[in-house]
Write a structure and sequence with these properties.
The chain is an all-alpha fold. The protein is built from 14 helices and two strands, in the order βααααααααααααααβ.
Length: about 300
Amino acid sequence: MAGAFAGPGCSRELIARAYREACAVELAALKPGNVHQYADGHGMCMADFIMSAQASAFPLTDPSLSLGERLFRSVEATRSAVGCNTNLGILLLCAPLVHALLDRGAVGGLRERLSSVLRRADRQDTDWLFRAIRLASPAGLGESQRHDVGGVADAPLADVMAYAAPWDRIARAYTDGYTDLFDYAAPLLARFMEQWGDEPWAATALYMDLLGRFPDTHIARKHGDSVAEGIRRRAAPLARALLHCARPQDSRESLLRLDREFKREDINPGTSADFTVAGLLILRLEPMCSLLQPITGFPRAFGPRTVGVRT
């Protein structure tokens, strides 16, 4: 993909920084059932996710890669760094957003550029996707009668994701142009930021809202639809309380109690966490679209900016 796009305010350096910051804020958020600064879980710790973001940022923002290879190389770098699947869902959602800024064939705002990227993804991108999923080996993957990731890629990416969309919210995002993220999650995150001025707590509120609104498909794959729906119902009252509170910190003990309950039950709402990272990234990438112009050369990547711990 020669002639990648960027500009003085939108370089590979800044895109990599935006991705790392989004991952860091999500880790600083108190997310019941997931790994965060307040508690580890599911055999993983916060350091694993920090290392994963650092390792994956460079291949994720490589201007020379196709969408599919961008995803695979990022998963490969993560696997080399931490030896397990920490961020497949994050990368599945973030890779197209990053590609939308780097792809010379895309124009317009972030949403328009993303739609163009997803429409043009081909069978080779699907092959890279299958390789990435096999390498990450996520829990509850199973087998499929059509477009099985253990087999040969036989269709463009859009067709594969459309097939998986009824039971996978990330696949559905590929088919509807990230509607839930652009129309709901990112605006809600911005509202919480304006209301509280605290990004980790805004991320907590978004995570809880998503968990209380939609059955988490990572939970459904691992434990079944009825368990995922039960978790949604348990999360919903806390999510509603956060929507209207003046001080989100007042919910900390209730959220920590739910966190302990979920982890005792081996419940990890991974899809809700993945969408939270993607929402954080959208708010960082959207302003960069107006600054795009052709560039050459591959500048070095920034390290992550430290995100303060909020209590």
